[in-house]
């Protein structure tokens, strides 16, 4: 392959890394979102502590499930990753400012979803250029 095509075509290692990170993210977010939607007592208690109401638990659960599905679909992986990364920024802030507890799981998921967004940044820029 000429080098100009190489810069546009992800290597096999990048594709594998992307899939592994996307599968891990999807599993984590679909599971967590499902727990929120199912009203698992721990989730209800956490969102009670946040103080925004249980509607926020439902909203967050939907966001996590939608993002978890979107990150699996190649055409929407970047958008799902950005949605989930923003959600994790909010989760880190919530742990630090409102509810306490370790923000480490949210930080790890933020790093993973940010990496996926970065790996798929070209699709984000293509959409922004074509619709901007």
Give a structural overview:
With 132 residues, the protein is mostly helical. It has one domain. It is 82% helix and 0% strand. The protein is elongated and about 45 Å long.
Brief account:
Helices cover 82% and strands 0% of the residues. It contains seven helices and no strands.
Unreliable parts: 1-5
Assign the structural class, choosing from mainly alpha, mainly beta, alpha/beta, alpha+beta, or little secondary structure: mainly alpha
Q: How many whole angstroms does the radius of gyration measure?
A: 17 Å
Overall average pLDDT: 92
Question: What coarse outline follows from CA principal-axis ratios?
Answer: elongated
What distance lies between the first and last C-alpha atoms, to the nearest angstrom? 32 Å
Major β-sheet, in short?
A: none
SSE run: HHHHHHH
What's the total number of strands?
A: 0
Number of domains: 1
The percent of residues in helical segments reads over 70%
**Tally of alpha and pi helices:** 7
Bin the strand percentage: under 5%
Question: What's the topology here?
Answer:
Layout: H1 3-6, H2 12-38, H3 41-50, H4 54-70, H5 77-99, H6 104-119, H7 121-131
Helix pairs in contact: 2-4, 2-6, 4-5, 5-6
Features:
about 130 residues, mainly alpha, about 80% helix
């Amino acid at each position: 392959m000429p080098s100009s095509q190489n810069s546009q075509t992800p290597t096999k290692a990048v594709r594998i890394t992307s899939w592994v990170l996307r599968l891990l993210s999807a599993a984590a977010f679909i599971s967590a979102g499902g727990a929120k939607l199912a009203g698992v007592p721990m989730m209800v208690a956490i969102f009670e502590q946040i103080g925004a109401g249980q509607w926020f638990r439902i909203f967050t659960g939907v966001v996590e499930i939608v993002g978890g599905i979107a990150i699996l679909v190649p055409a929407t992986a970047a958008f799902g990753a950005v949605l989930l990364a923003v959600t994790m920024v909010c989760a880190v802030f919530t742990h630090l400012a409102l509810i306490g507890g370790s923000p480490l799981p949210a930080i790890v998921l933020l790093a993973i979803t940010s990496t996926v967004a970065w790996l798929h940044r070209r699709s984000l820029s293509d959409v922004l250029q074509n619709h901007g």
